[in-house]
């Protein structure tokens, strides 16, 4: 993700976000909202003609707020005089507004009572994040609202039990737009800029159409000589790619993050009185100047060293380029679904049944899709599985790279989980789920924000050959996929389900890197284009997996494979060999862990009270499956992230489940990382972990040092990480033997005797490709509904990205 230094409300995915003095800077020239009204989906999901349906055994108590529920919550809050709220549409920086409303997941004990027994369906509650601007010290605050639907019994109060900051408040230090500081300063030194950056800037319009100016995220705090907190913003110049004329309009390839100009400005933006803000300094070529005059004087000197500015061009375009490869234009192999869809969906409850797995889906503004109540062979194995936070932590010899540590839930994975492209992002036959979120008093739905599909892995899950027979089983997986483009990066999130009871969590990254200017920074990345460094950074994406193995009483064990020198009765002397040592993680004091060298520790969540018939505890093992290029932040005690990155210091963690510890992070931690709303480190308070309800938190990620192959976009091939959760002594044998999709061929002396296909049907006949082709002109983007005043009858097409 990259920052635009925009008004914070503007980042919440709403065209109506106000205050928005800087919003024009994130729109390309010529951008116009497309507000055609037509029959558009809002709450409902697409209906696929050949989709077998089912009825969820229970209501999806984790389902996202409906549009009506969100409107109910927003209307209720607006009716409370003490909150002094202003409709987002009419609000300025000195008003109080509602940022986001989302479901507050029910307490787990209540949820289990309902799901597993005769307990009542838990009430629906919401979290409302509000921004209080009508004060000298603005803050964001999370509130609990409910039960919903709103009645006279509904209440609202700060979400103190789920946060660590006093009153569930976090200070907001840049609520007032300060973009004009950047442009005023830039125009003050336009002679220098025009020379160094090869530009022709005379006025605001020239500046706005040539450069974006943005920088560090989160903001810095420094203490002045009187001990006062100063709020510091460092920004750099980024060149806006040129507009390319197409047959029906124009396009700007989104390569701005490849066009840093190497010129940086530092501002003090403390307090709400803009007259007290000031330029602190300018950085160019690793030289620091304390004023525009000092910079200009240096520039006029003959000894001044000038560097190459980064200019747009074909190199940032992602279109096909270069010589066409032999046969490559022919249609490549593709998947078809000859027997129709082989899984069932309860659309209303977002409930899925595939083979021996069942689960519920939900979708939130902060973290996108998540799964609940994942059952295998009728038994819950996971109560909750989902993304918590995604850090992209940069480093560099310039303050903007050094000061960049995005925590992407601030921008949200929900708002940017754009529609998937059939045949490219997913098979043509994939089942689509529309997803909704509610921010800035707009409800927005992504068409096909989640796709669900089966596919052939194109490698068998099992095989064996002998001189007389061969046995092979197809490798088939169900994938649940969502893709969020948060600024420059596209995160592909998959949950794969396999026939052996394994669940795999995968994240892949593509899109544009955020690069750095190449000047005296060899130790922070490679020189990858004219004036460009592939700015090194770490990705750490934290996931929560709340295991419930045969109930909630579980223990995290490590079965360690160790070398040993040992004597045996049957051997004269000692033998150098290995053995297995069983250990338990007994307390949260030991709950922060890294994967062992050479993968010698098997990490398993077991239920010690539920051994199998051989006495071995039944469990699920967790282990990295792909990527392997990094699991947590390299930087320790990050100067940017302070108390907000406790979940990224290790590869994985285990804690005791608490309803007050729902998420490892909070979307608003970015506002004040020293005083976060959720401080993950505080989850660790020495509690017993033996036969308790356990939650694991693991990181996927990579140490990303972009090279020339990251231009123009990073490719998924290597930018990925995965974790498998797999049965371990859980059943008495491999459950994939239940699959009919296997064959055994008996043969002898070149003659086939018998062939067994276990009633699996063979695909026969012709494939009518016209039935599964897709018309790309039907790609529709997102649908929005205004919440306050509520206008559900007039949805309009509106897709917003951070560009
Ligand atoms: Cu990266």
Automatic annotation (TrEMBL):
Cofactor binding: number and manner: Contains 1 topaquinone per subunit.
UniProt KW keywords: Copper, Metal-binding, Oxidoreductase, Signal, TPQ
Primary enzyme class: oxidoreductase
EC numbers on record: 1.4.3.-
Gene Ontology MF annotations: copper ion binding; primary methylamine oxidase activity; quinone binding
Gene Ontology terms describing biological process: amine metabolic process
PANTHER family, per the entry: AMINE OXIDASE, COPPER AMINE OXIDASE
Protein name (record): Amine oxidase
Species of origin: Kwoniella pini CBS 10737
Lineage: Eukaryota, Fungi, Dikarya, Basidiomycota, Agaricomycotina
């Amino acid at each position: 993700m990259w920052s635009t230094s925009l008004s914070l409300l503007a980042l919440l995915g709403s065209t109506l976000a106000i205050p928005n003095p800087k919003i024009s800077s994130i729109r390309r020239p010529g951008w116009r909202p497309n507000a055609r009204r037509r029959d558009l989906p809002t709450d409902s999901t697409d209906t696929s003609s050949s989709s077998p349906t089912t009825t969820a055994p229970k209501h999806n108590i984790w389902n996202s707020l409906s549009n009506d529920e969100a409107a109910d919550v927003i209307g209720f809050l607006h009716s409370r005089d003490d909150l002094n709220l202003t409709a987002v549409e009419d609000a300025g920086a000195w008003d109080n507004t509602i940022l986001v409303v989302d479901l507050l997941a029910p307490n787990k004990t209540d949820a289990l009572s309902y799901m597993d027994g005769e307990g009542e369906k838990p009430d629906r509650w919401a979290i409302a994040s509000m921004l209080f601007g009508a004060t000298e010290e603005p803050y964001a605050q999370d509130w609990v609202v409910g039960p919903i639907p709103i009645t006279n019994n509904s209440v609202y109060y700060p979400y103190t039990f789920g946060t660590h900051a006093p009153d569930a408040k976090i200070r907001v230090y840049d609520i007032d737009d300060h973009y004009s500081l950047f442009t005023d300063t830039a125009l003050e030194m336009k002679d220098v800029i025009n020379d160094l950056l090869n530009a022709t800037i005379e006025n605001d319009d020239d500046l706005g159409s040539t450069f974006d100016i943005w920088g560090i995220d989160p903001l810095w705090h420094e203490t002045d000589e009187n001990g006062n907190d100063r709020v510091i913003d460092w920004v750099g110049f980024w060149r806006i790619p040129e507009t390319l004329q197409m047959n029906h309009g124009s396009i700007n390839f989104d390569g701005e993050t490849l066009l840093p100009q190497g010129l940086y400005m530092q501002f003090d933006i403390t307090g709400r009185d803009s007259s007290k803000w000031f330029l602190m300094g300018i950085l160019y070529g690793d030289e620091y100047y304390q004023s525009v005059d000092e910079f200009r004087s240096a520039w006029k000197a003959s000894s001044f060293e000038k560097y190459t500015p980064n200019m747009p061009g074909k190199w940032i375009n992602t279109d096909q380029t270069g010589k066409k490869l032999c046969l490559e234009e022919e249609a490549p192999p593709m998947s078809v679904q000859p027997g129709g869809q082989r899984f069932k969906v309860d659309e209303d409850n977002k409930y899925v049944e595939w083979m021996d797995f069942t689960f519920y889906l939900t979708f939130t503004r902060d973290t996108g899709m998540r799964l609940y109540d994942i059952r295998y062979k009728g038994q819950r194995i996971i109560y909750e599985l989902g993304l918590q936070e995604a850090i992209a932590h940069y480093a560099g010899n310039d303050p903007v790279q050094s000061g960049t540590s995005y925590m992407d839930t601030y921008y949200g994975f929900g708002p940017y989980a754009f529609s998937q492209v059939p045949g490219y992002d997913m098979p043509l036959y994939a089942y689509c789920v529309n997803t909704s979120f509610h921010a800035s008093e707009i409800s927005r739905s992504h068409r096909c924000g989640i796709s669900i599909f089966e596919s052939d892995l194109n490698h068998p899950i099992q095989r064996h050959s002998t001189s007389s027979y061969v046995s092979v089983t197809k490798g088939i997986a169900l994938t649940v996929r969502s893709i969020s483009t948060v600024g420059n990066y596209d995160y592909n999130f998959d949950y794969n389900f396999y026939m052996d009871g394994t669940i795999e969590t995968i994240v892949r990254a593509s899109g544009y890197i955020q690069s750095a200017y190449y000047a005296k920074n060899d130790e922070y990345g490679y020189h990858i284009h004219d004036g460009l460094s592939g700015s090194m950074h770490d990705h750490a994406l934290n996931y929560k997996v709340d295991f419930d193995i045969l109930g909630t009483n579980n223990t995290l064990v490590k079965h360690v494979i160790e070398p040993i020198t040992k004597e045996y009765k049957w051997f004269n002397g000692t033998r150098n060999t290995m053995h297995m040592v069983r250990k338990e993680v007994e307390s949260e004091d030991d709950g922060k862990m890294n994967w062992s060298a050479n993968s010698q520790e098997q990490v398993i969540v077991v239920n010690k009270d539920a051994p199998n018939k051989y006495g071995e505890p039944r469990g699920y093992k967790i282990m990295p499956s792909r990527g392997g290029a990094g699991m947590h932040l390299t930087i320790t005690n990050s100067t940017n992230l302070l108390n907000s990155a406790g979940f990224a210091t290790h590869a994985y963690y285990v804690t005791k489940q608490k309803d007050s510890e729902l998420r490892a992070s909070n979307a608003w931690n970015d506002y004040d990382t020293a005083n976060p709303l959720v401080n993950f480190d505080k989850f660790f308070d020495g509690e017993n972990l033996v036969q308790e309800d356990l939650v694991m938190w693991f990181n996927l990620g990579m140490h990303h040092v972009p090279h020339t192959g990251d231009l123009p976009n990073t490719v998924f091939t290597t930018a990925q990480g995965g974790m498998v959760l797999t049965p371990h002594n859980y059943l008495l044998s491999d459950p994939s033997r239940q699959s009919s999709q296997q064959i055994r061929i008996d043969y002898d002396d070149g003659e086939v005797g018998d062939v067994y296909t276990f009633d699996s049907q063979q695909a026969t006949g012709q494939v009518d490709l016209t039935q599964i082709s897709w018309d790309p002109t039907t790609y529709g983007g997102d649908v929005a509904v205004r919440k306050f005043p509520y206008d559900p009858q007039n949805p309009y097409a509106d897709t917003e990205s951070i560009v």
